[in-house]
Amino acid sequence: MSAPGKPVDMDHLARYTGGDSTLNAEVLRLFDVQITDMVGQLTTILEARDAKKWREVTHTIKGAARGVGAFGMGEAAAVAEPIDPALHREAAELAIKVLKLRGEAVQSFIRAYLAA
């Protein structure tokens, strides 16, 4: 789990990168871009009422977030994944808001990590 107040568990990430700071930075840069892209897609998917695509994108966010140690974001994606945007628009809208907030926290952490 992430340390309290930390959106990314760097100990978890280090288990996959061997603690290599250059590799950590590259993985986090890639995830930063992925957050913007994939969370951004969810509004379009919601408007299209595409339950299959919704599940695919939220599942991908969940896996990617958990992979880098962004467990709060991964949990938000896990909650969002079973939502059918065609049947439960308000729940889908709320899920997008939560994912955006969690994503912004992760991206802020990434920026601080890369600046250090």
Structure, described:
- The chain is mainly alpha-helical and 116 residues long.
- Helix content is 78%, strand content 0%.
- The two termini are 22 Å apart.
- The relative contact order is 0.18.
Which range does the strand content fall in?
Answer: under 5%
Helix content estimate? over 70%
Structural class, by secondary structure, is mainly alpha
Overall residue-averaged pLDDT value: 95
SS elements, strand count: 0
The radius of gyration is 14 Å
Contiguous helical run count? 5
Q: Sheet bearing the most strands, described? A: none
Note the run of SSEs as H and E: HHHHH
Question: End-to-end span in angstroms?
Answer: 22 Å
Uncertain parts = none
What general form does the structure show? elongated
Outline the fold blueprint:
Elements: H1 10-17, H2 21-48, H3 51-68, H4 71-80, H5 89-115
Helix pairs in contact: 2-3, 2-5, 3-4, 4-5
